[in-house]
Design a protein that fits this description.
Elements (H helix, E strand, L loop, with lengths): L3 H7 L4 H13 L10 H25 L8 E10 L4 E9 L18 H12 L4 H12 L5 H8 L2 H9 L6 E16 L2 E14 L4 E9 L4 H13 L4 E7 L5 H8 L4 E4 L1 H9 L4 H15 L4 H15 L4 H9 L1 H4 L7 H7 L3 H14 L8 H16 L9 H11 L11
Parallel strand pairs: 3-6, 6-7
Antiparallel strand pairs: 1-2, 3-4, 4-5
Helix pairs in contact: 8-9, 11-12, 16-17
């Protein structure tokens, strides 16, 4: 049996000739990349010579088997590489037993470099047609939508692994919010709701814990999400900041009974203004600021009473909403200014959503839920790569959280 090392050693040395051809072509103004590029042609020549060497070794091994064996012409196939496409001539044997190793049967992409270029372009939010046009213009490689889809499908097992990865045992703050997308399902376009969860680790670094799709909210759905986090290692959450998610307070009470729930005050304000006439909005907001910007909870309650006296008759639904959500809307009053700024709104995760939109804004409707998940995953990887430093003034915030939540923060997770 001829080893691969012996096959390689038996190949002719083309280092000098190849280098001379490249230098000569450069002086003649020929391109390096593309289907007619110098590097592409050199790659074609080297691969074909290598395959001929593999065939020669194969014929030596099988010459005494099955009555002998010999060459039987060539077959051709289009190879796509990062430097360009070319027609590769693959030798055949009469017995049909030749199995090339350098370029295997049915292989049309030479290496992972082209795959990485496709994934990089896809991860930036480019459509399949834009990826195809880019590769053709820059590298002279023609790739079909089917090939791009098969390459991006390699992300699916990575997504599964990422969504099931172990998490920190304790998160100081967790933010939850939803994004809405259009995607095809059962031959029609539907609205997909994707709930993202952002956590602040004890080290002060942001992390996306996961994303979950659901047709509707409710305590049953949220309990499933929270139990998933527990199964992945989360033992405690100090504060959860949410945007009025239906059924979430009940679910988190069952899964993490010690967690403080803070409703997003900014969302509450926006929802309130929807029910206030435009001519009254400026004056109403001036009075409402005295409520949520009050230095103490007692003063906030006093100002809410005054707000109701002035506007309760005209806008009773607005006052009722503040009253019914008052406990979760005012949780931040228990903390210092530094912690209040962090938790009174879901702005941190909304900022993340704005960045995700930069990657998905070119998509009118995704072809499937998996296509949606693939692009969200790429966006998360790109965005998280920029989260290299902890939140501002985190040391002070953490020391105060440790006072409010004694013996619940694991300082070993700060690194």
């Amino acid at each position: 049996m001829v080893s691969m090392k012996e096959k390689i050693e038996n190949l002719p040395s083309l280092k000098g000739e190849a280098l001379q051809e490249i230098i000569k072509g450069m002086y003649e103004g020929k391109p390096l990349l593309g289907s007619q590029g110098l590097l592409t042609q050199i790659a074609k020549d080297l691969i074909e010579i290598s395959l001929q060497g593999e065939m020669e070794s194969h014929l030596q091994e099988t010459s005494l088997e099955n009555g002998g064996n010999r060459r039987n012409g060539l077959s051709t196939k289009t190879m796509k590489t990062a430097s360009g496409s070319f027609e590769l001539e693959v030798p055949r044997d009469r017995n049909g037993t030749f199995e090339p190793q350098l370029v295997k049967k049915r292989q049309t992409v030479l290496n992972d470099e082209l795959d990485q270029k496709i994934l990089a372009l896809y991860g930036l939010g480019n459509s399949y047609s834009a990826i195809s046009d880019h590769l053709k213009d820059i590298y002279g490689v023609e790739v079909s939508a089917g090939l791009i889809s098969s390459v991006t499908d390699k992300l699916l097992p990575q997504i599964t692994e990422w969504r099931n990865r172990p998490l920190e045992s304790v998160y100081a703050v967790v933010f939850l919010d939803a994004m809405y997308f259009k995607a095809k399902q059962d031959n029609k376009v539907v609205t997909k709701v994707v709930y993202n969860i952002m956590g602040i680790r004890a080290s002060g670094h942001k992390e996306i814990l996961g994303f979950y799709a659901s047709e509707s909210e409710g305590s049953h759905f949220w309990l499933g999400v929270l139990n998933d986090l527990k199964a992945r290692g989360v033992e405690d959450i100090l504060i959860a900041c949410i945007d009025g998610l239906k059924g979430f307070p009940e679910a988190i009470g069952a899964a993490f009974p010690s967690t403080e729930v803070q409703l997003c005050v900014v969302h509450q304000i926006r929802n309130s203004l929807k029910h206030v006439a435009s001519k009254n909005q400026k004056e109403f907001m001036s009075d409402l600021k005295l409520v949520y910007q009050a230095p103490t909870l007692d003063l906030a309650e006093h100002n809410l009473n005054k707000l109701e006296e002035k506007w309760g008759t005209k806008y009773p639904i607005v006052i009722k909403s503040w009253r019914s959500n008052w406990g979760h809307l005012t949780a931040y009053f228990r903390y210092s200014v530094e912690i209040r700024k962090l938790i009174y709104t879901t702005n941190p995760i909304e900022g993340f959503h704005r960045q995700v939109r930069k990657y998905t804004k070119t998509k009118g409707a995704f072809t499937s839920e998996s296509a949606l998940f693939k692009l969200i995953f790429c966006a998360i990887r790109n965005i998280e790569s920029r989260w290299s430093v902890p939140l501002q003034n985190w040391a002070l915030t953490l020391s105060q959280l440790d006072i409010y939540f004694p013996n619940r923060i694991h300082f070993k997770n700060m690194v």
